[in-house]
Design goal:
The chain has five helices and no strands. By secondary structure, the chain is mostly helical. The longest helix has 33 residues. The chain starts with 6 loop residues before the first helix and ends in a 10-residue tail after the last helix.
Length: 149
């Protein structure tokens, strides 16, 4: 097992396996934001990327696209209602913007997507925290009903 010699890798794998759905979404947003920040740093003030960094730039943008596609696939369009529809529209918009920025190296586009992802991330953090608090409150109640068997 590759994680035996890599405690950080083992920790990451364990945290993903034990995370709630809300926490997983938060982690996906964090990954997208991190990769986008790395891509933005590769563009200089003139909108140029060093030849030696072009592959890295493309890889970082591709990782963001992969994460956004994962977020898009996780939407429950049957039960998500208007929120799911709005998120779908945003994810499609992000994909288009990122594809354009892949070619144009437009820092403004990337910064705009980054800022929107950060706002969504903060909303998901709040939502997952309030859900976790609700669940822990419910688990701590004096009810004799136990779903664990």
């Amino acid at each position: 097992m590759a994680y035996m010699n890599n405690p950080y890798g083992a920790y990451k794998q364990a945290s993903v396996k034990t995370a709630s759905q809300g926490k997983l979404i938060v982690m996906l947003y964090e990954g997208a934001i991190s990769h986008l920040e790395k891509a933005i740093k590769l563009i200089d003030e003139n909108g140029k990327i060093k030849a030696s960094s072009i592959e890295e730039y493309g890889n970082q943008i591709q990782k963001v696209l992969d994460i956004i596609n994962e977020l898009q696939m996780s939407l429950n369009m049957d039960e998500g209602g208007e929120i799911a529809k709005n998120l779908l529209a945003l994810y499609i918009f992000f994909n288009k913007q990122l594809m354009e920025a892949t070619v144009s190296h437009d820092k403004k586009i990337l910064t705009s997507v980054h800022d929107m992802l950060k706002e969504l991330h903060e909303s998901w953090v709040q939502a997952s925290n309030s859900t976790a608090n609700t669940q822990s409150t419910m688990q701590g109640s004096s009810s004799s009903f136990n779903i664990t068997g």
